[in-house]
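It is worth pausing here to work through a concrete case rather than discussing structure prediction in the abstract. The textbook approach is simple: state the sequence, then state the predicted structure, then interpret. We follow exactly that order.
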Amino acid sequence: MDEGEGQALEQRWAGSSGDGLAAAGGIKAAMSSYDRVAAGYDDHLGGMRRGRAWAAKVAPHLVPGGLVADLGTGTGTLAAALAEEGWPVVGLDYSHEMLKRARARIPRVVQADVARLPLRSGSCANLLATCVVDVVDSPEALLAEAARVLRPGGRMVVISSIVRRPSDPVGRIRFDLQTALRGGPPPDRPDVLREIAARAGLVLDGVAGSLERRTAYVPNDIADRIERRQMHIHLLCRADAAAWRNVVAPAVQALRDLPHPDRPHPQHQTCEVIVLRRPAAS
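Step two, the predicted structure:
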């Protein structure tokens, strides 16, 4: 994807309400859920401070000089941090409210379902996916689409979700809740992702490092956000009444039963930086 195509993509954003995309991509419920949390998203996830720290870890694994298509760009913090360092970027997301905030940071954004990218086959040098593989309906469809749009030798850098069970009580409850709702390990855990990538025609070059984030969460606040479906949105929006009764409600109660549930509890989160590559043509 060259600069001209990036500009054409950005023009598609202007005047879009997102309704047509949601209907076409079957993602209306999830999109509206992320729209609801967009205003406070950076407050919970570190904003530009985290974006700059993570960009420094990601940049060495990108194809030098190539345009970076940031899939699930959210509020655009990581893309903006890369742009500050001279990388040409375009942000793609299906949440209209997230993209409104991203557009204040990066010049080019487009609303799109990341499993149906508006990009030419073989046109991209770099794809970036931060905590995206775990939230889409079909990781297989996402990676197949990534393989389609990457040029031979192009790279996809995946920043995983939390793929190892944390040691702190709040982190363990949240991790176990997600595992139960998902019905298995996260698809962006490196050993799982390797298999999905291989079926799509991508090679996992390796885990290039980890990204650390130390924060503190108030258990009752987390419980409230779970009950409002403002956390773990991709899983909670799909939970039926039985799952809510048997899985979600006990997790919420476990959070409220922790000692001092109205005080901040430290949490140490670790994400993996995983590099995928489309093999060069032989």
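Step three, interpretation. The CA atoms of residues 118 and 165 lie 36 Å apart. The first helix runs from residue 3 to 13.
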